[in-house]
Amino acid sequence: MSNESLANLLREERRFAPPTDLAANANVTAEAYELAKADRLGFWAEQARRLSWETEPTETLDWSNPPFAKWFADGKLNVAYNCVDRHVENGLGDRVAIHFEGEPGDTRAITYAELQREVSQAANALTELGVQAGDRVAIYLPMIPEAVISMLACARIGAPHSLVFGGFSADALATRINDADARVIITADGGYRRGKPSALKPAVDEALTRPGTENVRSVLVVRRTGQDTAWAEGRDVWWHEMVGRQSDQHTPEAFEAEHPLFILYTSGTTGKPKGILHTTGGYLTQISYTHSAVFDLKPESDVFWCTADVGWVTGHSYIVYGPLSNGGTEVLYEGTPDSPHQGRWWEIVQKYGVTILYTAPTAIRACMKWGDDIPAKFDLSSLRILGSVGEPINPEAWMWYRKHIGGDRAPIVDTWWQTETGGMMISPLPGVTETKPGSAQVPLPGIAATVVDDDANEVPNGSGGYLVLTEPWPSMLRTIWGDDQRYLDTYWARFENKYFAGDGAKRDEDGDIWLLGRVDDVMLVSGHNISTTEVESALVSHPKVAEAAVVGATDPQTTQAICAFVILRGGATAEDEGLVDELRAHVAKALGPIAKPKRVLPVAELPKTRSGKIMRRLLRDVAENRALGDVTTLTDSSVMDLIQSQLPGAA
Ligand code: 6R9
């Protein structure tokens, strides 16, 4: 970014107060901010008492070698014990932990007592396969209960897991196996996607032919689809045979609070993926606290549903470790929102009486595109809190979510965080915060975040800059696996003593924080830094636009020119007379003439990662007529061919 702060264009005046009854009974009230402000470390030490420790920690934070943090370092605990066994010991064995809904419609309710038995069996199986505390286990599974059970089994024996999204290519899998030096892989024959079995095991077989994966001893294979599967004798073992014959008793061992819990790779824009390392005690403390505070979870009555994939950090923290450490009941769904019909999610909400729904803006925009009449066919009155994560949520998508899913009643919590932060960092609290469409608003109690300019000075209200975190937090990444220097360079070199998140942000007149997208995506137009998020939100506020992705393409006159890719809705087509000019004028009216796109290109799809984020760098390659960069983390690589074939002038 240049020296000028991010242009601050959007005006949003709508406000929504917390429902009175929710505020009156909320788990967390405004007092939490005061307590945490008065004694931040004391606040986190208090939150650590939510967990069951074998050895209680006496030390909260060791920051003697910044930015390498140690939280609760002299404490010992077992994560799986905290997520499963202690609930059974507390008499909650019959409570459903997981309502599993397979894409073909098969279902399973798993109680905490059953979960304890299955996790114990899986832990015994891993031990029989020679896995010891500290050994890495790669998990490449669809969204089935065995994914959760495998993660908990690894945690139980102190073997850090490394999940790789089912559907990533053999190459992506091989790189991650190699970097983590995994010893065992847990996979499945396949999973169901859009009504069809989709094979997984062949990618594992292929990955294991690549150099650097020789240390993998065993592949544990869940039978999910029953499809034919190649078999390497001596290496491959069926889950139902190996896990099935184990004892369902297993005594968990306590590990030090800083024992590694998992590695999770983030792709970034260049270079090899970064293995983000999370550890045990601090991670579980913050995940458990934020899951309870931000969703106001009442474990005895709520039914929670996070629609993320377990292969994304959102799935780790808010499908596995948050809900289960809090003894909650949750839904786990294998498939896509539109299979076999576009109302599938709402049918699931109705069926299980889901009370808290956590999803991503990309999914909300897809539902908007399919039409209001689809959710209207289902009873969604059980919903009392809605969450959003993954990208800035466009104000119009926020309003749609509130009205058509939340019955104009349920508060929305827009939660900003990252793989690196481990858990939520900036978010409204549903019983406290007056919400604003499109803003994550305030750092959670115990979290210190702010917005600074190029010289690391805090920006005044009403201005934009870079989002930074100014104090360590319990679930922070500890390093990049095997690369401390890259950890320092990526996050701690840009500003002294501050964590650089890589996101642009602004503070509004009330001091609330608005996220403006990745700083790599910020556009420089005639000397102004313009956020992609704001231009996209202006486009999405037009009734004929379902989704928009905006990039800055090199331009001889203005340095960069704004180029917008849009998905149309309501029957509008690229051929509609005057539509492109209408959209350009709409943006100019909403944000000012400087933000008017030079080009608007209607397309049928946008390139997205498996976690639903728009990959703007690929669109920049298109807009600048370059060969495409790395596409290995795309959900569907044919999308780029489609976009290129739709461009004016394409053959
Ligand atoms: C949890 C997760 C992190 C990046 C982050 C930011 C974007 C996530 C957001 C958001 C605006 C939100 N992001 N939540 N931007 N508002 N509520 O998404 O982790 O996959 O590592 O991505 O996602 O750009 O820096 P991860």
From TrEMBL:
It comes from the Bacteria. Mg(2+) binds at residues 540, 542, 545. Acetylated. Deacetylation by the SIR2-homolog deacetylase activates the enzyme. Keywords: Acetylation, ATP-binding, Ligase, Magnesium, Metal-binding, Nucleotide-binding. It is an enzyme of class 6 (ligase). Its cofactor is Mg(2+). Residues 30-83 form the Acetyl-coenzyme A synthetase N-terminal domain. GO terms for biological process: acetyl-CoA biosynthetic process from acetate. Belongs to the ATP-dependent AMP-binding enzyme family. This is Acetyl-coenzyme A synthetase. It comes from Streptomyces zagrosensis.
